[in-house]
Design brief:
single chain; 259 residues; alpha/beta; 10 helices; 42% helix; 15% strand; globular; AB_hydrolase_sf; monoacylglycerol lipase activity
Length: 259
């Protein structure tokens, strides 16, 4: 299974790995790469089944986590490793932490669903009936707007959405809705920052609280006036939040801390 990724910055610098959300790919982190690559080694993979990592193998969060953990071990040349995940990428990050509880120094978990939805498989089949909407340009624009995707990226977003096959889409949705915290999450030694937008659905805010309450190393942040996708909605604010946390272990004052 081939994992596509891009690298930026100096390889001897501290490593930051950026994991995108479902239906997106590495381009969603362009603003972060521009900001951080002068001082960090940035690694931006396309999660298996997405972007340029599309293949015929069934997608699993656990499998993606294992691949990216292996990639980090291959690429790290500095003691410090930080991983940032959004949505599906945040679920992959949580799974990575469960698999290797002591290998990541800083983990920023953005908008991770960790409360499994009852009857997920049945619900996935229902959602699968809406699969043709993914090829609708008007529906795609509505989805893009809800995730704060800029017009310059819409064609890329739409083209990548159209390349996802129905079977892969339903498998991805089932993995997403069935995901829960690893049983050993309380043993993870990373410095953990967990964020959610104040305008996100209640289940997402509850998931953030579950993560924070499951590990003593967690700090939770509710980002005001933003829904699903802070890094795209307000890149500068997101970048400053990440930078201050990694470099100074501080959450900037514009945020609402949960704990």
């Amino acid at each position: 299974m081939v994992l596509h990724y891009k690298e930026y910055g100096q390889q001897q610098s501290p490593l930051i790995v950026f994991l995108h959300g479902g239906g997106l790919s590495g381009w969603m982190w362009d603003e972060q790469v521009t900001y951080f690559s002068p001082n960090f080694h940035c690694l931006v993979p396309d999660i298996p089944g997405q972007g340029r990592s599309i293949n015929e193998s069934p997608f699993t969060i656990a499998g993606a986590a294992e691949q990216i953990n292996d990639l980090i071990e291959q690429k790290r040349q500095h003691d410090t490793v930080a991983v940032v995940g959004f949505s599906l990428g945040a679920q992959v990050l949580v799974a990575m932490l469960g698999q290797r509880p002591h290998s990541i120094d800083f983990a920023m978990i953005n908008s991770a669903l960790v409360k499994s939805i009852p009857f997920a498989k049945t619900l996935t089949k229902t959602i699968g009936l809406a699969y043709p909407l993914m090829k609708s340009r008007s529906f795609s624009k509505i989805q893009a707007k809800s995730m704060y995707i800029k017009k310059d990226y819409w064609n890329t977003y739409y083209d990548e959405s159209c390349r996802i096959k129905k079977e892969a889409f339903t498998q991805l949705m089932n993995e997403n809705m069935s995901f829960s915290l690893p049983s050993n999450f309380d043993k993870v030694s990373s410095n953990l920052l967990v964020t959610v937008g104040a305008k996100e659905k209640r289940i997402m805010r509850d998931s953030m609280k579950n993560i924070v309450n499951s590990n003593a190393n967690c700090r939770g942040v509710i980002i005001p006036k933003i829904g699903h996708g802070c890094s795209l909605a307000n890149p500068l604010l997101f970048n400053q939040l990440l930078e201050q946390w990694i470099e100074h272990d501080r959450v900037i004052s514009e945020k609402i801390e949960y704990r």
